[in-house]
Specification:
It is a single chain. The protein is α/β, with parallel strands linked by helices. The protein has one domain: Aldolase class I (TIM Barrel), CATH 3.20.20. Helices cover about 45% and strands about 15% of the residues. Strands 1-2-3-4-5-6-7-8 form an eight-stranded parallel barrel, surrounded by six helices. The longest helix has 19 residues. The two termini are about 15 Å apart. The model has no long low-confidence stretch (mean pLDDT about 95). Bound molecules: phosphoenolpyruvate (PEP). The site of phosphoenolpyruvate has 13 residues, from strand 8.
């Protein structure tokens, strides 16, 4: 049985005090949430948010980290620094990092390694562009992204890994993948995993959908057999919307 998971990626939004307000609003409306809930604020907020979140079931993650463990990398933040500030998880390979900052599979593989060294939960983001989908290559692209990122790791090291399928054409565009498109890719990802690590491991792997999830479409997406929750961008910045997604009952 896979625990349903809803995570909010705040991207480069909110100042620390606004982040604190948002966290208090989320905690105030969480109630008996069945989902495991994570927030990924900007790194500047981690220390401030770690305290209220430590008394709560909501987990805290960072959006990015350096590929190196330490050294002369001006402006970079290491996984261990983020952990010391309260991060329990890390987004690895968000499409904005891949597209805007040129992060390659090799770099993401190193980031994943840093993450595993520090026992942070990695959220590996994968997804195709519109051109890749239109050319019929979308499954191949996603398979390659997964294989490059996890190359060289044994299954036991990847135990906690979460995969987020986020089609690039659906991120921040208001254009959500249909439940059919999302389910098709999630089932494919699970088959890729099963082929590499066996059926039982694939059954345990949590695969989130991300890309314009809103309170209005969450229940239907979450009702798909292989969708285990969502990674939410824009809608995670409004506590009321995020909470409606957290509480959305998968519609089967
Ligand atoms: C994201 O950035 O991970 C994301 C899914 O964004 P949005 O929900 O805004 O499409």
């Amino acid at each position: 049985m896979r625990t349903h998971l809803v995570a909010g990626n705040w991207k480069m939004h909110t100042h620390p005090n606004e982040g604190l307000d948002l966290v208090h609003e989320i905690l105030g409306g969480l109630g008996e949430a069945k989902a495991e809930v994570w927030v990924f604020p900007p790194a500047t907020h981690l220390s401030l948010l770690a305290e209220p979140l430590a008394q709560s079931p909501v987990k805290l993650g960072a959006q990015n980290a350096a590929a190196a463990a330490q050294g002369a990398y001006t402006g970079e933040l290491s996984v261990s620094m983020l952990k010391a500030c309260g991060a329990q998880g890390l987004l690895v390979g968000h499409s904005e990092r891949r597209q805007l900052f040129g992060e390659t599979g090799k770099v993401l593989n190193q980031k994943l390694e840093r993450c595993l060294e520090q026992a942070l939960t990695p959220f590996l983001c994968v997804g195709e562009t519109l051109a890749e989908r239109e050319s019929g290559n979308h499954m191949e692209v996603v398979r390659n992204q997964i294989e490059e990122a996890i190359e060289g790791f044994e299954l036991h090291a990847l135990d906690a890994l979460v995969i987020a399928y986020e089609p690039v054409w659906a991120i921040g565009t208001g254009q959500t993948a249909s439940p059919f498109q999302a389910q098709e890719m999630h089932a494919f990802i699970r088959r890729v995993w099963a082929k590499k690590f066996g059926e039982s491991s694939a059954e345990h792997l949590r695969i989130l959908y991300g890309g314009s999830v809103k309170p209005e479409n969450a229940a239907e997406l979450f009702g798909q057999t292989d969708i285990d929750g969502g990674l939410i961008g824009g809608a995670s910045l409004k506590a009321a919307d995020f909470l409606r997604i957290v509480h959305a009952k998968p519609q089967v």
